[in-house]
UniProtKB/TrEMBL annotation:
Pfam family, one: HEM4
Region forming the signal peptide: none
Designated name of the protein: Uroporphyrinogen III synthase HEM4
Superkingdom of source: Archaea
Length: 266
């Protein structure tokens, strides 16, 4: 069972409140690992989005993360274009990839018309197929580090897609917040790690290889349970030769359920 187990998640403390609560309630010990920093493309992202809405005239806006919502709307507020952005988004049918993204949109006064049952690119594709959106136009404001999978999937369905890249990501620079984890990891006292994105996988290895050579790092990783939040994260882990278990539900709570299942049978 989970009592006394040390379980890390590749998110900052602010972004892992739900995970910390779940782990703590199960008498285990959570560790937050801030792996990535968002590097905004600046105030121009709002004008680029608004111009795209005007010129492209999309039927749907699809938001793939709460971070994209927050960054876009917070930037609009800074340059006094919040109402204009709000109206532009509201004039499309809005789809949120999952509940956290839906809440972020609703907090900005945006009505969310659609949310897939599976909180992933595959779920978005399935939902567009279900609502017969062939020939429609979609705008997707998201990370510049995103894979082309969603765009290619929707285009195969017959949907026209325009992506707006709001930000890039880089490895977290203040790794003093990793001290507790690094000490426990060096003593093989970390029992599990939940990876929450492909970007966080790349950043994790960029940070950890400052302390470890590749072979030592891989050897230590074999001594703990690795959970990926979804298939793209799993694929990225495989590139680093890390065996992992994919969460069936691609959310933090879904990943935690996978953690519980793993430790209930070990």
């Amino acid at each position: 069972m989970l009592k006394g187990k040390v379980i890390a998640i590749t998110r900052s403390k602010d972004d892992s409140a739900e995970f910390i609560d779940l782990v703590t309630k199960n008498n285990a010990i959570p560790i937050s690992l801030p792996t990535i920093e968002l590097v905004s493309k600046g105030e121009k992202i709002v004008d680029e989005f608004l111009e795209s809405i005007t010129q492209y005239n999309p039927d749907y806006s699809v938001f793939m993360s709460s971070k994209a919502v927050t960054l876009l709307f917070d930037t609009a507020k800074k340059i006094s274009k919040f109402e204009k952005l709000q109206l532009a988004v509201a004039n499309t049918m809005v789809m949120a990839v999952g509940p956290k993204t839906k809440i972020a949109l609703e907090n900005e006064g945006i009505k969310v018309a659609y949310m897939p049952n599976i909180y992933s690119s595959v779920g978005v594709g399935e939902l567009f197929t279900k609502i017969h959106a062939v020939g429609k136009k979609v705008i997707v404001p998201r990370s510049g580090a995103s894979t082309p999978f969603l765009k290619e999937l929707l285009e195969k369905i017959g949907i026209n897609v325009k992506e707006i890249h709001l930000y890039d990501v880089c490895a977290f620079r203040d790794i003093s917040q990793w001290n507790e984890f690094r000490e426990l990891f060096s003593k093989n006292k970390v029992d599990g790690i939940v990876f929450t994105s492909a970007s966080s996988v790349r950043a994790f290895f960029e940070i950890m290889t400052k302390d470890y050579d590749e072979n030592s790092l891989l050897e230590n990783m074999t001594k703990l349970s690795v959970i990926s939040i979804g298939p793209f994260t799993s694929d990225e882990l495989k590139k680093f030769k890390i065996k992992n278990t994919i969460s069936q539900v691609h959310t933090v709570s879904g990943a935690f359920d996978t953690v519980k299942t793993i430790f209930s049978i070990t």
